[in-house]
Structure formats: structure tokens, C-alpha cells
Amino acid sequence: MAPSNKPAKSKGMTLPNLDSAVDPTRIAGLLEESRQYLATIFATVHDGILVIDAETHTIVDANPRAVELIGCSREKIIGVTCHNFVCPADTGNCPITDLGQTVDSSKRTLLKANGEVIPITKTVASITLRGRLHLVEIFLDISGWERTEESLKESEDRCRDLFENANDLIQSVDPKGHFLYVNRAWKETMGYTDEEIARLRVFDIIAPTCQDHCLTIFQRVMSGESIRRVEVQFVAKDGRQIDLEGSVNCNFVDGKPVATRNIFRDITERKLVEKEREEWNRTLERKVEEKTRHLKEAQAKLIQSEKMAALSEVISGASHELNNPLAGILGAIQLLRRSTLSKPIEPALMDEIDVLENIESAATRCQKIVEDLIRFSTQARCFFTQVDINEVLRDTLGAMVAQFTQTAITVSWQPNPALPRIEGDFVKLFEVFANVLQNAASAMPDGGTIEVATRLLKAYAKPPQLVVTIRDTGCGIPAHNLGKIFDPFFTTKPVGKGPGLGLTVSYGIVKKHNGDIEVKSNVGKGAKVTITLPLRQPSS
Ligand SMILES: Nc1ncnc2c1ncn2[C@@H]1O[C@H](COP(=O)(O)OP(=O)(O)OP(=O)(O)O)[C@@H](O)[C@H]1O
Ligand SMILES: [Mg+2]
């Protein structure tokens, strides 16, 4: 065979090249070098090496590592049949020499001198030494690896158990969005089978409203960001929307994204409760607002009625004080007139009569005002009879129809035929409706509509009441005037057009009927007057 510069290869052995030099000293040197080379490897290699006579199966050499692994002295190993240690097979059943098998990195066992059996991987090569066939058995103790493998498997099982029994939804997705792993809770919540999951991509289960948001998150995670808190919505197989909250990040290998790690908590119920709570809060706020408004209205009413009661007392006293001197003045005027008229008529006397008439007319006007004030005050008396409110309204409207036609005012009124009679003062209620209708007409100098409606109000645990509403489309009342309209002499009419007693008197009359009068208005849109009257008077 031609000599080669390449190292000779024989199952894991590299020999130095023996070239064709003929110098015997050099050859001896090279051989010694080669022997030392092999002896060093033999002595220091971490694998155990046994050289076995192929015919007798006796061990002819063992390296220190083999001795260490077998666990007895080299002397006790050399000359012993190999089956005692490395291949515990029956005589005549040697896999190499008898069965013709090759052994290359095969998993086998080593029988130690103390009887212990350890796992090894073994490679066997054949070699001819001094004309006899030998087997070189090289073996590696893999008991440490097996332990590592076992603990690795245990740890993997623990992790799987943890994931599979977690209540949170755990998923892992590859960069293309395919699912690599989903846990039991995920499958139970989403309702997909393993086959369906294998076909799905993560964006197939994300709610349409959440797609853009999730795409941004996915891109951020793929570029290395770890998102500690994210809210997403998935759609389960049956169409239910699942609200989830969790964390998302990605596993990178060699700088490339491999698999996302997502752990989500199902917060659908929590969201529902939050939504319900928000709705409750809104309802509560609305109710509080409503109650506050009612309270304010009631407070305003109370202030108004207290103010009116105080005014009524003052006015009652003052009007009585004024009534007597006024009656005296009018009586004196009568006397003066009679005595003047008994004298012969002269121009100077005519002037006196004119003066007297002026004084009388002013005093009569004053007396009318005082009468109005008395009607407002508690002193005014009412004569209650059974009254048909429809009839009172019909008479009042009838008396004003000419005025309404003149000012292009349309009246809308369908008398409610199912109204019971009430105990009331026909004349005084006529006056109330006339005052209110007159005010409506005054608020619509260029025409408009007056709507009159009547109804029976039945409230739980309260006696029924009759309600009359008179609504107009006039100028309305500014908010700052609403609190003053019942005050005596409050008017927005020009001087001499109205003393501002219409609503004052109406208030007094309605109160005398144990009823209520209320005015609501929007400037520019009109006003609505509501008069509530009880069916019966307490005294009767
Ligand atoms: N329907 C209404 N539309 C607009 N303003 C109104 C209406 N009703 C009452 N008012 C306002 O209330 C004020 C007081 O009304 P009230 O009837 O007491 O007196 P008046 O109408 O001014 O005078 P009087 O009735 O004594 O002739 C009115 O001047 C007006 O400003
Ligand atoms: Mg008036």
C-alpha cells in the first residue's frame, strides 16, 4: 500500500504518518513517538477502553478510565473474560464475534466489579495486533446523562401539569400567528378542538373591534417588547365575546422570534359587573339629580308659600285699615255732591263737581285694589257649591272669545267629559281662570295658541284631585321673574296697564280652595299654568 500523508483512521484512532524514510533510527524514533502518542490518549481519554482478544474474549488491556469505571485493579481485569464487565452476554452469543453485529455508540450496560450495573454507550472496533484479531471496546458512562434526562423529563412534566391545570388561558403562537400551544383552560373557554386549533391563526379568534389593537401588540412583541398588561377580546367558537387581560412577550433564538408567550385571565364576568356598576352609578346619579331638583322645587314652593302667608297677613291688616278711611272718603264725597247739587248751577260750581268726580273715581279705584288685596288675603271668603269645572272654563272662555278673536289667538280645548264635580266657588274660580287667560293673551300680542286641558289626578294613597292646565305660546317668563309673579304689585306691564294683582288674587283664591297654582316657563316658548284643586273641601 502506498504511504499517505493523511492520518490513518481506525474507529476513533489517529496514527502519526510513517513515511517511507529508510533511516532505521528515524523509524525507531517515529515508532516511539507513535507509541507515546497512543499511550497518552489511552491513558487520558475520558472514555473507558478495553482491548479484548477476539478469539478468547479475554481482556488484554484496559485504560485507567476503564479500570476506574469497572472499579477494581487493572490486574483483576486483565485476563478476565470481557462478558464479566462490558458485554454481559452468554458464551457463544458475543454480538460481534458470534452474531456478526456492529456496535457503534450503542446503549449498553457495564457490570461493575461490585455488581452495580451502570448505563454506557459503547463503540466496538476490530483491530489486528501481532497477527491476532482484537476488539477495542470504547465506552462512556452515561448514568449522569440519564439522571439529567430524567430530571429534565420530570421538570417538563411539572411545567405541563402547571400549564394544563392553570385557570388562566395560556397560548403560544409562532411569528406567522399559528398556534404552537394552548392549554386546557384555553380550549375549554374557546371551545375549539385540537384539529381546529391546528388550522386556526391567532387573528381568526380576535374580535373584529380589537384586530388593529392586537396587530400593533403582535408587532411590538415580535420586535422584542414585553407587554406586562394588555386587554384583548377573543371570539369563542359559539360566538361569545371573551374579555381577557394578560401579559405578552416572545421567545427569541439567535435573535429571531420563535414563539410568543401569552397568559390571559378571563375577565368577561368582571367586565359585566363593572358595566352593571357603571349603569347603576348613572341611574343613581340621575335619581339623586331628580331628587335634588324635587327638593329645590319643594324648597322654593315652601319659601313662596311662607312669603305669601306673611304678605297675606300684612296685606290683610293694611287693607282693613285702608278700607275704613276709604269708605269715609267716599261717604263724604256723596255728601258733598248732594250739597253741591242743591245749589244754583254756576260755572264755578261745575268745576267743583268735576273735582269731586275725579276724587270719587280715584277713591273707587283704591277701593277696588283694597278689595283685590282682601280677596288675596286669608280674610277673603269663599262660598263653596258643587261646581262643574268644565262649565266655569266654558263661561270664562266665552266671556273672552271676542278679545281672543281680535288678537288672532286660537284656543284649543276639548272638555274632558269624565270629570267629577268639585266643591268650589264658581265666581272666584271664574276670576282665577280669567286672570290666567288674560295673562296668556297679554303675552301673545301678535297672536298664538292657548291650550286648555283638564284631567283627574289619582295618586297612590292620596285623595283624587282635579288638574287644569293653561298653556300659551307667548313670550314666556324669565327665570329671575318666576319667583316674583305671585307678589302683589309685581308686573311687567306698562304703568297704568295692570296693578300686578291678577296672579296674587288667583293665588289667594286657589289657596282658599286648598289647591295649588304653579307656573313653568321657557323664555320665547311660552308659559304653562297648572291649577290643582281638591274634589272636597275639608270643612264640608
Ligand atoms: N302667561 C304669561 N306669560 C308671560 N308672562 C306672564 C304670564 N303670566 C304672568 N306673567 C308675568 O307675571 C306678571 C304678573 O302677573 P299678574 O297677573 O299678577 O299681573 P299683571 O298681569 O301684570 O297685572 P294684572 O293682572 O293685575 O292686570 C305679569 O306682569 C307678567 O310679567
Ligand atoms: Mg294679570
Secondary-structure blueprint:
Blueprint: E1 8-9, E2 14-15, H1 24-44, E3 48-53, E4 59-62, H2 64-70, H3 74-77, E5 106-111, E6 117-129, E7 132-141, H4 143-164, E8 169-173, E9 179-182, H5 184-190, H6 194-199, H7 211-222, E10 227-235, E11 241-253, E12 256-266, H8 268-341, H9 347-376, E13 385-387, H10 389-406, E14 409-413, E15 422-424, H11 426-442, E16 448-457, E17 465-472, H12 479-482, H13 502-512, E18 516-522, E19 526-534
Parallel strand pairs: 14-16
Antiparallel strand pairs: 1-2, 3-4, 3-7, 5-6, 6-7, 8-9, 8-12, 10-11, 11-12, 13-15, 16-17, 17-19, 18-19
Bound molecules: adenosine-5'-triphosphate and magnesium ion (MG).
Magnesium ion is lined by residues 435, 438-439, 498, 502.
The CATH top-level class label of the domain at 382-534:
Alpha Beta
What oligomeric state is this? Answer: single chain
Q: Overall mean pLDDT score?
A: 88
Summarize the main sheet: 5 strands, antiparallel
Q: For the largest sheet, list the strands in their spatial order.
A: 4-3-7-6-5
Low-pLDDT stretches: 1-14
Distance, first to last CA = 148 Å
Task: Say which CATH homologous superfamily of the domain at 382-534 is assigned.
Answer: Histidine kinase-like ATPase, C-terminal domain
Distinct bound molecules? adenosine-5'-triphosphate, magnesium ion
Radius of gyration: 59 Å
Which fold name is given in CATH as the topology of the domain at 382-534? Heat Shock Protein 90
Structural class: alpha+beta
Number of helices: 13
Q: Helical content, roughly?
A: 40-55%
Quantity of strands, as a count:
19
